[in-house]
Amino acid sequence: MTDSPLRGSGNSVGIPYLTTPTPTSTSDARARVIVFAVWLVMFVVGLVYVVRYAWVNPYVDEWDFVPVLFGEQRVGPWLWELHNEHRFPLPRLLYLGLFRVTGDLRAGCLVSFLGMSLLAAGLVALARRVRGRSALADAFFPLTLMHTGQGENLYMGYQMCFMLVAVLSGGLLAVIVRTGEHDRFRRGLQAIALSWLLLTCGAAGLAYGLAGAAWVLLLAGLGNMRPWQRACLALLAAVAPVYVWIYFQGFARPAHHPPSAGVWESIRIGLEAQSMAFGPAATGVWPDVGVVVFVGGIVVVMQLLVALWRHRNDTPRPAGLLLFVGAAAAVAFGIGWGRSGFQFDMGFAWRYGWLVAPALWAAYFTWVLIGGRVATSGPVAMMLVALAVAPVNSVSGFLDAERKVKPFEDAWEADVRAGLPPDEIVRRHFPDHGAGTVRRIAEAMQLMRKHRYAYYESLGEEAR
Question: Domain range for residue 342?
C-alpha cells in the first residue's frame, strides 16, 4: 500500500512513497510496452484518418477566414473578434501562421492530432511518475484522446482551438499534481503561464485559466515563500480577472443562437457534452452514461473535500484538483447553457470530446493520489470502459468520414475542376443556404482561385 501525497507523505516531488516492495522491473516494463503499443496503434490509425479525410477546403466557419488567410483582410482585428461566444487570439494566430507557412488548411488537422497524441503520451508519463510505476490502466489516455470518433476535430484545421485548451489544461493539471512543499513558487509561475495561455483560447480556456489563477493565489498564501515571491504570484494572478473584464467588452450573444432553455435543460445538455469524453459510443448508452458521469463527479468532489479536510498540510494539491474539477464542470454547463435552446441534442456533438476530457483526467489523478484500493480500481474501471467503447468510436469515425466527408469533398473538387462558376457550386452543394451565405462562400472561392490555392485555378467565372 502506498503512502499517498494526499495523506501527507511530505514528498516534495509528488511521488508516493512505497511501503511495500516495488513491482518487479518485468511487470513495470510489460505495462509500459502494452500502453505504448496501444498508443502506437491509435497514432497510426489516427494519422491515416487525418491524411485521408482532412478537408482541403474550408469547413463551415472557415469560409469566413479566407480573406485573412490570403492577406486580403487585416490580421489584428480578426485575432480578437468574437466567434460565437469565443475570442481565440492564440489559436487563430497559430492557425494563420500554419497556413502562411504551409499553404494548406490540412496542416491544422495534423497539428491538432499530433498535439493530442503528445498530450496522451504526457499524461501516461505523468501517471507513471505520480504512481511510481506504470499501469495498464494508463492506456485510458490514448484510448479516449486519440480515437477517430473525434472526427470533427480531426478533419477541420480550425479545431486547433479545442486542442490547445486540452493540451494547456493538461499541463496545468500536471503542475497541480506535482506540486510539493518546497517548489510552490516555481510551480506557481508555471501555472500562471499556462493560465494566461488558456485565457486566450475561448470560453473554455477562461474557465481553466481562472481556476489556474485562483490556485496560484492559494499558493501565494501558503508554503515557504519570501514576501516578494508571494507578491509576485498575486500580481501575476491578478491579470486573469482583468483579461476577463476586457474579454467581455463588446460581448454579444450570437444572433443566430436561440436563448438558453434554462438551468435544468442546460444541465442535461451539459451532461450530454461531458459524456462525449467517452466518444460517440456514449450516445448509445444515454442517459445511463449521463447518470454515471454526474454521480462520479459528485464522488470525486466529496473525496477531494475529505482529503482537503484531513490533510491540511498538503492543501495545494486537493484544492487545485477541486478548482480544476470546478472549471471542467463550468465548461460542460457552459456548453449546455449556450446550446440548450436548439431543438436537438447539441450536447452530443463529437467535437466537444476534447473540451470536456479534462474532467476525466481530474478523476483519474484524484484516485491515484488518494491511494488505497480506489487508486487501482478507479483508473482500471475507466480504462475498461474506454477499451470497450474504442471499437465503436473508431468505426463511427471512419463510417462518418466515408459516408459524408469524403463524398462531399470529392464531388466539390470535381465541380471546381470542371470549371463551374462558384455561385453555382455553392447552390448545388448547399441548397438550403441563403443568398448572403452563397455570396460569402462564392467570394471566398474567387480569392482561392486568385491565390492559386489547391485546384482552384480551374474554378469558372462567376455567373453574370
Answer: 2-411
